[in-house]
Specification:
The complex is a heterodimer of chains A (about 220) and B (about 400). With about 220 residues, chain A is an alpha+beta fold. Chain A is about 60% helix and about 10% strand. Chain B is built from 15 helices and eight strands. Classes of the chains: A alpha+beta (about 220), B alpha/beta (about 400).
Amino acid sequence: MSLFIRNILISLGITVLLIGTVTYAISYLNRARITELTAIEDQLSIETLSLETQFSLLETAPCETSASSTALSSELTNLDNRLSYTENQLGSDNPQVLQLKKQYSLLEIRDYLITKKLAAACKTKPVTVLYFYSNAGDCSECDKAGYALSYLRDTYPSLRVYSFDYNLDLGALKTFIAVTKVKDKLPAFVISDQHYYGFTTLEELEKQFPKGALATSTATTTVRQ
Amino acid sequence: MSAEALLYPFLFLAIFFESFLLVTFLSKPARAYRNRAIVPSFPKVAIIVPCWNEESTVAGTVDSLLALEYPQEKLRIVLVNDGSTDGTAKAIEKFATHPQITTLHKENGGKFTAMNLALSKVPDAELVGFLDADSFAAPDSLREMVATFDSPEILAVTASMSIDKPSTLFQRMQFAEYSFAIILRHIFASINGLYVTPGPFSFYRQEVFTKLGFFKHAYLAEDMEMAMRIQRAGGRIGNAVRARVYTKGPPTYRTLIKQRTRWTTGFLRNMLFDYRDLIWSKRNTVLGMFVIPLGFLAIGGGIIVFALNIVELVRRGYHAVSLIQTVPVSYTFALHPFSWFYLPITALVVMGILVLASTVTWMVVGKKLSGSPGSLALNAVIYIVLYGVTAPIWLIRSVSDVARGVATTWR
């Protein structure tokens, strides 16, 4: 074998080794991300269940529930940001991402329901936003809408925003969409039970909120996209 | 498939190329090449300096040749004024009385005609070298060059070129590029893969011209054509890595694009029209099966990668701007707490960094091995920033010129 051919073969071996190492390292990093997301979701799942249990135990005086769903919302926001980033990195059709999104959506629905229950029992009026998006390439304004909601969430922490992938294949989510009567016209918002479709500007979106809703702030929210 | 995904094959090739450089650099022939001792030998040498409108630099060029550490009686210098329209004639006539120097004047006919005229005046020289009139040779460079002709099959030898006193951004970029080219030339010479003997300080055995003929127009790439002719004839082209020569790089964007377009169209036209038989040639496997195909790939790949990057940049830029415009600017640029989770590390980024780091390392090695002076750090940064957006321009222009049959001009 000539020196040149030998060098070519060794170089190919080095290249494959290097690229294999890079691929493994990146895959390891992504696995670490998925593990962290799973850990956050597991923790959230326990906390949600704990809150629901407390609510059931104190049915006669639910407002005395020591835990607050506010803390949960804050964690949901953190999870949402990380999930969104991971989805960008691994792709929205990644099976692990899809699984995490489904779990996340369930957590959101449960948090939303318990927030409604607590509000009814304690006679409070939290401002909630249900935000439905699609990343199947059929919603050109969804990125901007999601970013605007992130801004509103950070600026007005009392907002409770729940974001959902409209096309996610999850029974509970489909039922939720049916119950809330949200049409397939994205981006879609349900702001304090009022429906609003499309996104033009931040100012236009702000106009959809009840008067004074964006001035009072104590809680946090979650936004996707 | 996304534009990003299309970049992976090119990154694979780039990593493969860098690996090949490393393996070949560590191979026995390259090690022997750079560790070769200079055996004192003083054959008769002629150095030809073709000049065209080089009044400001030619005196420095000649001074550097007169300072070469070589027996005076063995070294002849021929200055050829190729119909300059500035003060070049006057500048070279100042050396006319020097016993080692011959000055010639002729009507303008192109660089190769000036070289050939001078060649015809030095039939007794065993080795004939050429030095562009905007370049300067280091005092010990000739001894290094001569020593590299250590076997009869070595018909030509190239030197290690650096940019002389880089001052503009583009010259600084070229300084780093030339440092990389030093190591490329050293490595490929060790496996006889060179296809160009550059104007600044390349030397030939006299038999090259007696047996293979004088220089040709060769689409204004006479140095490339002569190297290809030598390769076709089965000769070897060596490299004296410690023979330093400094050249004035084009200072501006316009002059650089002009020069590189000339080089690239010269490569394409010579290869496609006159030396097509060298492509995939089994006679010279390194050149035919590897170096030349890589040359074509580098041109095509450079253009494709540039286009893909532009597409991606526009797409992401448009997306980012539309997002930024959605909310107050202060929100977008607010600092967020650091978390490893959000580190933008992808296979593409890591592989890109790998190629870049490897290239910069080769620049350092090239500069160190040749002993070229000057600082590399800032120039390497300028290279990283500028090269990727400058080189594709001359590549695109060259391909376009060759495809449309547009003739290339010297300046």
